[in-house]
């Protein structure tokens, strides 16, 4: 390559290549460099040729060692390197180094490919795959990996917290998703400030976050972190167009002495979180095996109940009579659902109603009871009234007015024979809407009953705003009124108030003759309880419903 003409010809050949190309001697000196190489190194060809470009390499010794290996072995060397270009920017460069023999002299041909854009795109894709784009926090995928790395090696010294914002949907409903996003961003920052170097904060999706604590015993305890998280969630969120106040619920699982898979850790934390929600939100719950057993039983109950609703045959309606206190005659029946489970036998409402409410199945269950009970009542010879309880969840989520209209229409039942029982819980969250819906039901000719009267804080106030047809005194007062003068005075006051308002009164939970006698002396209208009868299939009351006195 000593001839200037030959070198010029060779440069002309390699100048057409878009990748940087250099040819070097065994002593690492450049003898050829194309235009792309000159541009990359930021030097003229004259300045490059004959030089050892150590000033352009970040690891000169390794570079020379790799080149020497190629000269020694004759094998092609391909690798990726980080090289600083003329502008001082670190580039990801793929190099291919191969020997060429010319006139008995060996030369090293180095072809460089700039992978910087590709590697940056890969890094961005990794970030997208492992980080939440709204908050910038690690996402569920990265948290899963972090749990896998942390818990098997930190038995008894780590904890996982899963956090849900309470009533976050109301923020989106009232202010829009943009404001909701601001809340999520601010809350993520608050969590990061709390945890600092003691763990990792992640957004799992929606309004769910997680904290992985890996320094339990060396830093803050999980209990202290939970208290700080609850406090942070309850602080006012100052947003661009609004202010919001929410809260949070937390499920906590502490690493035990056996390695646990990340998916199982998340599941356990979720079990504890659900318990926190069920207990009223705004608190934290620690996972335990007993809690897990309850959760699995609850899930099994929900699955079986969903199946029972689809088939219908397992669900039965039992009826409990209401009698006139003065005469003892049956004046109405309250419809109560029972579940004849194929394996568990007869399941009582207190074992499955809460599950039905939490899962939303209560709407379908309530409609089934309403429809069947109305059909049953049409078979009675005596036009006794039918009383049906309505869950607050069904009242809010379902189309109760439509369901009542359908049941009445399909059964042919006289609306005046139907009584709908509600509790104070129906009225608490949105009394205006609830009272409007009750008025629509009452306009059909259906009677409205306020159940568990006296047990809530606002029972008396609701009597001012809605003309209830009947109230049922809570059974706790009836149970205590013989031995407790205060309970007896409350019962007497309710009866006097109801008489002035022309509202019928039912005493619930009547279990002995002394209670019934006192109620009779106080002027109570109706009674219901085990003294009169337990709930039973309607066939057990054949004489009552088909003509003869009980």
UniProtKB/TrEMBL annotation:
Boundaries of each GGDEF domain copy?
A: 156-289
Show the PROSITE patterns listed in the entry: EAL (PS50883), GGDEF (PS50887)
Tree of life domain = Bacteria
Give the matching SMART domains. Answer: EAL, GGDEF, PAS
Which CDD domains would you find in this protein's record?
Answer: EAL, GGDEF, PAS
The record's listing under Pfam families reads: EAL, GGDEF, PAS_4
Report what the protein is called: EAL domain-containing protein
